[in-house]
Amino acid sequence: SLIPLTRPEEAIPPSPVITAPDTAPVNTAVSFDATATFTTQAPIARYSWDFGDGGRATGAIVTHVYTASGNYRVLMTAIDTRNLQATTSHNIQITSPIPPTETPVTPQPVPPTETPVTPQPVPPTETPVTPEPEPEPPATPPTAAITGSTNGFIGEPVSFSAAGSTQGSNPIATYQFDFGDGVSRPPSADPNATYLYNHGGTYQVTVTVTDASGLSSSVSMQVSINSRLDAAVWTLSSPAPVPGTAITLQFLGGQVAGFAGCNTYSGGYTATDNGDGTFSVTTSGLVTSQLACPQQVMQQETNYLASLGQVTTAQISGNTLSLSYPGGALTYIEVGTR
């Protein structure tokens, strides 16, 4: 059974902010910027745009071309790594080009016939001197910024964000994350990234921000990855976790610990060798850190901990751990062996 430790923390969604013009001409690219959006808990995972004319897009900074004049209501939804979301709107007026005004032609009176005048020589025309154009200032690159967890655990999601980066002469186009363990995420318009480390240690995470003209800058931070117990880390493979989450398990000397998708958990266990490659197992006193997450994640966690609390048999085969309980089985893979 679960023993609450603290009152659940209220889950606060992001606070979405749109920066965009109030008016723009038809058939002209209009830029919409959501980088002023902020959050007090989980990092923002993605931005979703609805331009009011059927057009949609994702990303922190996007552009859109309206092909018809009128008033449009633009919606932007910011979604964090816990799937909490909030939406804001911005009204924009798209104007039609003003047709040129025709100058009326006034009929001219016919002048009387004049006595021919002997033409006078025309003095030579001086060639005008064209002033040299002022040289354009050199383009400035964007300024990269990164935030994220400075501590994490093997097999558990660690989140990073470069949403605080600022553009230089041109809008930011892509964000590329290098997680410091030989793995990097390809360039993407998404300024946020979540990663699972397979081994403990200190890693340098670097984000490279590139603008539309190819200018770029980079910045790094360090994250320390640890193990809850000095033992192998097992990650749940069946039943499959909710996308974007992970569930882990460690056990050592009568202690069991892990991550249940939203909260950390711990408790006790006993194990008796049955002599046939299996162990008779009981778990007890499972408690969690009592954070609040989206309903789907919380339901997954409740079901998992209820199953773990009913485990009767354990068996390890190679890099696979199977825990059986009256309603089925939990199957894990040892982290770093896949």
Explain this structure.
It is a single chain. The protein is mainly beta and 338 residues long. The protein has three domains: 23-94, Immunoglobulin-like, CATH 2.60.40.10; 147-226, Sandwich (Immunoglobulin-like), CATH 2.60.40; 234-334, Beta Barrel (Lipocalin). It has one helix at 295-308; strands at 23-25, 29-33, 44-50, 56-58, 61-65, 70-80, 85-95, 147-148, 151-153, 157-161, 172-178, 184-188, 192-196, 201-211, 216-226, 234-238, 248-252, 255-259, 264-273, 278-288, 313-317, 320-325, 328-334. The strands form five sheets. It has an eight-stranded antiparallel beta barrel. The protein has a five-stranded mixed β-sheet with strand order 1-7-6-3-4, with no helix packed on it. A hairpin with a 4-residue loop joins strand 6 (70-80) and strand 7 (85-95). It is elongated and about 130 Å long. The two termini are 32 Å apart. Residues 1-6 have low confidence and may be disordered.
Helices and strands in order:
Elements: E1 23-25, E2 29-33, E3 44-50, E4 56-58, E5 61-65, E6 70-80, E7 85-95, E8 147-148, E9 151-153, E10 157-161, E11 172-178, E12 184-188, E13 192-196, E14 201-211, E15 216-226, E16 234-238, E17 248-252, E18 255-259, E19 264-273, E20 278-288, H1 295-308, E21 313-317, E22 320-325, E23 328-334
Parallel strand pairs: 1-7, 9-15
Antiparallel strand pairs: 2-5, 3-4, 3-6, 6-7, 8-10, 10-13, 11-12, 11-14, 14-15, 16-17, 16-23, 17-18, 18-19, 19-20, 20-21, 21-22, 22-23
